[in-house]
Specification:
With 281 residues, the chain is of the alpha/beta class. It contains 10 helices and 8 strands.
Length: 281
């Protein structure tokens, strides 16, 4: 038996999440995970439905960015998840030794034995500011091979890579460019985590890469914006603990569509900025 490999294309992040949930549920392979399911007669390893997935989103900033049915993702964002990734609001847990890492800490304070911490995001932005739009080296990684394999919960997020599809040697005065974003994940909780994950990655690109570039090149009329988002997961899965909720989600989705509601309206949850602002209050 082989793990199925899916390619899913969509316009918005919410549409992508819906398509992925439905497809992994219907066609994903049934396999065990390393996590224990409690609450039964005795603890047992959780089962899952899983697939390798390449998800392409053409307009990642277009609403709806979080699906109405993705209540866990909405709660994560309301709880400040995006600021945790972008601004390191929970890095202090690492500093106090309570957490092994945060994604922000790995991106901007990547620690290599015997070397000072590396700010990988700044390296990416500075290369772009120098005009290296077409570079294939604009990436940041999280995995630390000397320690992560032995962690109880090692990073799922592995790598972010960006590029600007252009033949321009340097940014041209008055030109517009799209920053294409790609992320790689070794393991991914589709039903509970994907929606918050991808919105954080898109916001990371918008705030930490696009906005500094627009400030740098404002005087020459050059404009950058977030372009296509590509999301690759080696193991994109739905955990056994969520099987009941997925069945309920599918039933509600089917009922709403049968009543004549448009797919876009069915998917529309709170707009992302509202959720982010709630996380700051």
């Amino acid at each position: 038996m082989s793990i199925p490999v899916f390619k899913i294309e969509s316009e918005t992040l919410a549409e992508a999440w819906e398509k992925a949930v439905l497809r992994v549920w219907r066609q994903g392979v049934k396999k065990l995970t390393q996590y224990v399911l409690t609450g039964g007669r005795k603890p047992a390893y959780q089962k899952s439905r899983a697939a390798t997935a390449l998800i392409v989103v053409s307009k990642p900033l277009k609403e709806p960015r979080i699906h109405a049915g993705d209540t866990i993702g909405q709660q994560s964002i309301r709880s400040g998840y995006i600021d945790e990734i972008l601004d390191g609001t929970k890095d202090f847990y690492v500093e106090k030794g309570k957490w092994d890492y945060t994604y922000h800490e790995r991106l901007v304070k990547y620690n290599v034995p015997s070397l000072p911490p590396l700010d990988q995001l700044t390296q990416m932005v500075e290369a772009l500011k120098r005009g290296q739009l077409f570079s294939r080296r604009l990436q940041a990684v999280t995995w630390q091979a000397w320690k992560d394999p032995d962690l109880e919960s090692p990073p799922c997020f592995q790598r972010i890579w960006v590029t600007v599809p252009t033949e321009d040697l340097k940014p041209k005065r008055g030109a517009s460019y799209k920053i294409n974003v790609q992320t790689c994940w070794r393991s991914r909780d589709l039903f509970d985590a994907w929606g918050a994950n991808v919105n954080a990655m898109v916001e990371l690109c918008r705030r930490k890469i696009v906005e500094p570039l627009n400030e740098k090149f404002e005087s020459s009329g050059v404009k950058f914006e977030v372009g296509q988002y590509v999301d690759f997961s080696n193991d994109l899965h739905i955990y056994e603990k969520d099987f009941k909720q997925v069945r309920e989600f599918r039933a509600i989705l089917k009922k709403k569509l049968a009543s004549g509601k448009r797919p876009g309206d069915v998917r529309r949850g709170p707009d992302i900025q509202t959720l982010i602002n709630l996380g700051k209050t």
